[in-house]
Amino acid sequence: MKILILGAGQVGGTLAENLANEANDITIIDSDGARLRELQDRLDIRTVQGKASYPTVLRQAGAADADMLIAVTSSDETNMVACQIASILFKTPTKISRVRASAYLARNELFGENGFPIDVMISPEHLVTRHITRLIEYPGALQVLEFSKGLARLVAIRATEGGPLVGHELSYLRSHMPRIDTRVAAIFRKDRAIMPQGDTVIEDGDEVFFIAGTDHIRSVMSELQPLVKNYKRIFICGGGNIGQRLAHTLENRYQVKLLERDHERCVMLSENLRKTVVLEGNAANKDILLEENIENTDVFCAVTNDDEANIMASLLAKRLGARKVFTLINNPDYVDLIQGGDIDVAISPQQTTIGSLLTHVRRGDVVNVHSLRRGAAEAIEAIAHGDHRSSKVVGKRLDEIPLPEGTTIGAIVRHNEVLIAHDHVRIQPDDHVILFLVDKTRVRDVEKLFQVGLTFF
Asked: How far does the signal peptide extend, from start to end residue (predicted)?
């Protein structure tokens, strides 16, 4: 595919890296020449310096024959106008735009038939809020990913001594929980991927990815670590777009406190949030946290737009007794450094957003893509089309499908029913197949499996 990426920031750069590795023709536009040179030195891409919404710049970048335009500059207005220009002047088939401001997102008519011609809108704040909310719903999880409108979920969890399955072979799970069907898709041990077999022994500290129907997630989690009590008290540090959204999403089910240092923003938040207790102050102030009984807090979420402030506030909250600490980190280099110590979960907006963007770039009928382990692994939901003559997967038993190395099928969703992957299951037309790739470089091979041959037409 020929893809134009507007904006070479964290999201644009990470996206270019992901797509360039998959043999796409990538051109990236940005006004920052130094950043473009740095990307060009590392990646096999074209770069164009200039303002991303200018027609002349878009033409120079090859908009006239681009298959897709992905606008992820730091300006909503630039992104929206660029999509409009690409549509009017260049008839670009697919236009994806990042839109962050709730003032725009609240008005659906802006993006309807007569509004901005954006095919897919990505809101990082919305995606990050959903990500954090799921972690709060499943205490102890490192990542919770949804497939088939929430019918199936893939969960990453740290195996901990005291979990019934820890120290046992995977096959023990079936005899211990005969009524619950689940599949372990991958295990990461000291950052090394292990393809799970029945005789694989789960060790303390393993990062385990398993897939199950939504109703069974908690039961499987309780096998891998001692059951964590449900969270009740949530403390949010930072009242920006993410903090406000998160408080709004959680306030009817949890006791929520939100700390914001800007006075005017505090007034606005207290007027717009119904049950959240809004506090004014700095989270790096130990006295404020002690005054608000931080030692009784179940989850402390630091979601300001300053990485260093988030890290320092999180470390302080943990030292003062907060049970779990979630920290928003924009700089991807920090994520690996801090997760797993005093900070329980580091949340990267880039990785959360990248999955959403990749869904629309994948070939074949791919309806969900989740980027895992900072982009090294991937989970994909693909729909099987065609029949036994035109498709490489339809009509075949799972053990007959030539999956690329490091790829497992975790589950199939058929007519709103979740079927956990076992060798004897046959794939039928329109099945939603959920795959886990330990090695992301095999994505193209997986896509080819799900592409329909010419006999289908």
From this structure: none
Q: Which residue has the tokens 């606008």?
A: 71
Supply the Cα-derived Rg of the chain in whole angstroms. Answer: 23
Contact 208, 142 (CB under 8 A): no
Q: How many residues does the chain have?
A: 457
Q: How far is CA 188 from CA 117, 171, 195, 208, 396, in A?
A: 42, 18, 9, 7, 29
Task: Tell me how far CA of residue 141 lies from CA of 155, 159, 230, 401, in angstroms.
Answer: 7, 10, 12, 31
Sheet holding 299-302, edge to edge: 277-280, 255-260, 233-237, 299-302, 324-328, 345-347
Token output for 218: 């908690």
| Tokens representing residue 2 in the block | 């020929």
What angle is formed at CA 437 by the lines to CA 431 and CA 440, rounded to 5 degrees? 125
Residues near 123 by Cβ (< 8 Å), separated by ≥ 6?
98, 99, 100, 105
| Residue 149, C-beta contacts closer than 8 angstroms, at least 6 positions apart | none
Measured in whole angstroms, how far is the alpha carbon of residue 188 from the centre of its chain? 18
H/E element holding 59? helix 55-60
Contact assessment for residue 155 and residue 131, using Cβ atoms and an 8 Å cutoff: no
Laid out side by side, the sheet with 46-49 consists of: 46-49, 25-30, 2-6, 68-71, 94-98, 120-122
For residues 238 and 304, is the Cβ–Cβ distance under 8 A? yes
Burial 287-313 (b: 16+ CB within 10 A, else e): eebeebebeebbbbbbbbeebebbbeb
Residue range 236-291, pLDDT digits in tens: 999 998 999 999 999 999 999 999 999 999 999 999 999 999 999 988 889 999 99
81, 27 contact by CB (below 8 A): no
Give the C-alpha separation, 200 to 31, whole Å.
51
Task: Return d(Cα 131, Cα 371) in angstroms, integer.
Answer: 12
Q: CB within 8 A of 156, min separation 6: which ones?
A: 141, 142, 143, 144, 207, 208, 209, 372
Q: Report the 10 Å Cβ neighbour count for 208.
A: 29
**Residue-wise pLDDT tens digits, 345-378:** 888 888 888 878 887 777 667 888 887 776 668 8
Residues 205 and 269: beta-carbon distance below 8 Å: no
How far CA 273 is from CA of 109, 254, 269, 270, in Å, comes to 25, 13, 6, 5
Q: State residue 433's pLDDT score.
A: 93
